[in-house]
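One example copied in:
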Amino acid sequence: MAQGVRVHVWGDYALFSRPEMKVERCSYDMITPSAARGILEAIYWHPGMRWVVDRIYVRNPIAFTSVRRNEVQSKLQAGNVLTVMNGAERPLFINTKEDIAQRAAVLLKDVDYVIDAHFEMTQQANAGDNPGKFKDIMMRRLRSGKCYHQPYFGCREFPVHFELYEGENVETAYPEEKKDLGYMFFDFDYTGEEILPMFFRAVLNDGILDLTDCEVVR
């Protein structure tokens, strides 16, 4: 049994990095299905349920901006911490003056979407779990603005504002228009021994990305 919900999400900036451009990051033209699923899971997640994104409505025109940010090239190694705990003398910090690097990024700006999704029960649901219970919890969280952890648009510095979308119709930025956005990351396939990325051809029809009948390429 599936239970549906509609969530309005918006923010100032977003960065859904294309895998072929992850050093100098460049965003996809819109939110990816996996990022939309991640937002829903940040609001409410339970092992007894699985979120499935059906449609994404693009409410603001697609617009880009570029920024240059200071980043560090290295990270603190767990092995260094272990050796220090065993008595060795090693620095437990990152020297940003030596490790700093400036990288450019092409971001989306003024993003606004409506996520149309449903959840399905999994085999990890407890005896007292049921779709009505999960739906009620999700609706309460959306109406009160609560979440398990702060959702974000691709990077943690781009937080997501969210609310329950209670309107019947959703106005989009591209009515009566078809936009081919090319191949886009869909999600990861966790069913096999190896975790494999999946891609699909993203096409906006009337400003709506329909994921209910899309061809996925592994």
User: Anything to note?
Assistant: The chain has a mean pLDDT of 90.
